[in-house]
TrEMBL record:
Belongs to the N(4)/N(6)-methyltransferase family. PROSITE patterns: N6_MTASE. GO terms for molecular function: DNA binding; N-methyltransferase activity. This is DNA methyltransferase. InterPro entries: DNA_methylase_N4/N6, DNA_methylase_N6_adenine_CS, N4/N6-MTase_EcoPI_Mod-like, SAM-dependent_MTases_sf. Keywords: Methyltransferase, S-adenosyl-L-methionine, Transferase. SUPFAM superfamilies: S-adenosyl-L-methionine-dependent methyltransferases.
Amino acid sequence: MTHESFFGLAWPGKQAAAAQATASATWRIIPRRAGGSRTLPEVLHNSLTAGDNLEFLTLLREPWRESVDVIYIDPPYNTGRDFIYKDNYRSRREHNSSDHGRWHAQWLSMMFPRLIVAREFLKPSGFICISIGEDEVANLRKVADEVFGEECFAGQLIWKKAGTGKNDSRYAVVEHEYVLVYAKSVDNPGFNLDRGGVKTTRYNHSDSKGRYSLVRLDSKTLGYLSSLDFPITGPDGKTYWPDQPAGKDKVARWRWGREKVQEHGAELVFRRGFVYTKNYESAGAKPRSILDGARFGVTRTGRKDAEAALGIVGIFEFPKPVGLVKHLIDICGPSDAVVMDFFAGSGTTAQAVVELNAEDGGQRTFHMVQIPQPTDTKSVAYAEGFTTVFDICLARTQSVCANHGVNLDVFDTEPITD
């Protein structure tokens, strides 16, 4: 954990919350199937566990240390409409309460130890992606800066969650949510290319290596360096210099040094009085921070994804779209990524992993945890026989896995009494 004691976000109960991250597990994991051969989930097998996620993380801290490529979580947003974890009970936030600090503190104390322990699961090349709304995004970013290091902040992505916004806002109509992304290490090489990304560059030239665009070798914006202001002789015998702005000098310079020009001179293109380099078309585009469009889906898409998998309408209120989670997993991990989600909800992450593997032949595995939170007795879910959110998650995950011929290990948790 990277932080200084004199700077950061403080709240009542922070020290006690941090202490939970070092506590020993008081529950154990058991296979749901009688006679199951594995007593703990393994990263090589898809798994779903019913239980408190902090207990799960604490128990698997050592056996799974630095084994996970991508963590995606969609925690409670603390809006007043969802529950707030506090150990093993939940409380409701009063809409008209003026004591906002208490509700922020309670939510932060729930998130803080889970993020601390989660970081230990990530490989040095790993990422964590956290969906969050307006109510806690500022606080979460400060806490995540403290846990993962501000230098490991990889982006605050904006997901357009609705095609049309509701007009019940006091100020602006809110049509978006966020995904905070942090790398485990500053040495992380970065995101994978977005295979479905939109390219704005025109690759209107080609050679034996493929299509390419031309990029000027001289630059007026990188800052002048005399060592990069030198003559280059073209194949026609003409001498080329960085093109200086009219009436000025010592502004433009080459992007390459003398040695690189000599070594890679055959890659230069001399055209219309300028020197260019070849920018070859890649297999994808660099990921963008705004996630807007059909491939990422909207809230309505997420509901339809869950309903299609379960064959029941109105079963889950705000699941994330499968397309959104697929995108995050794809840009953050390899094709054999170990993916964890310890706020599993309706099981969107499992469906994203299974579908992504089916599309690209990958061998990713998913590992999800969901507390058996009771469903509302007046809800469609309860009427359909789903008495807990875990029951919904299990049914959806089993359906998706069965449709794709994928195995699933299911686990329960129980208190340690001996």
